[in-house]
Amino acid sequence: MNRFRFRLASILRLREVHEDKKKREFGAALGKLNLENNELNQLKGSLQDHEIGMEKRSRGTVSVHQLRNNFNYARALDMKIGEQKKHVKAAADVVESRRVELAESSKKKKILEHLKDRDREEHNHAVEKEEQVVIDELTTQRYKNHRD
Fold first, then answer.
1. How many whole angstroms separate alpha carbon 111 and alpha carbon 63?
2. Spatial CB neighbours of 70, under 8 Å, sequence gap ≥ 6
3. pTM for the model
4. Domains of the chain, first to last
5. CA distances (Å), origin 56, targets 17, 59, 75, 119, 147
6. Rounded alpha-carbon distances, angstroms, from residue 27 to 9, 95, 104, 129
7. According to a count of CB atoms within 10 Å of the terminal CB, is the N or C end of the chain lower?
8. Left, alpha or beta for 60 (phi > 0: left; psi -120 to 50: alpha)?
9. What's the number of CA atoms in the CB half-sphere (13 Å) around residue 63?
């Protein structure tokens, strides 16, 4: 009996390596998105803290110079938040494209795995047929020898 050997095994290995690469790229893109989201949340927290601090300081006497500085700082934070939102959007777009690439790579690998399974089933069926032929031959031989 010969062993099962998938004739496209090297291509399947290549597809598995490619899928692993796409998984790593997807993971890296997700990590980048998380970093960008964390940065955005920190900026929003800083702006909120600044606004709370301004509200507390405004209860007393505040000079025009301090008010202008506080306003300019809040505006600068707001601009940074706007820029960071663009970074988050870009990172989310990269994550989505990496997800699509990973899905496509996984689909290609699954097709080959399915083909391998089908070829294995055909091989096993052929082996069973061969074994049945041998068993039938042995049974016939035994019967003949027993009758003689």
1. 72
2. 50, 54, 57
3. 0.77
4. 9-112 (1.10.287.1700)
5. 58, 6, 19, 75, 112
6. 27, 9, 16, 47
7. C
8. beta
9. 3
Q: What integer pLDDT is reported at residue 55 of this predicted model? A: 84
What are 24-50's pLDDT values in tens digits?
A: 999 999 999 999 999 999 999 999 999
User: Rounded CA gap, 127 and 148, in Å?
Assistant: 32
Cα–Cα separations (whole angstroms), residue 36 to 47, 57, 93, 114:
17, 31, 13, 39
Q: Which two structure tokens, joined as six digits, stand for 107?
A: 């689909």
The tokens describing 87, both together, are 């970074």
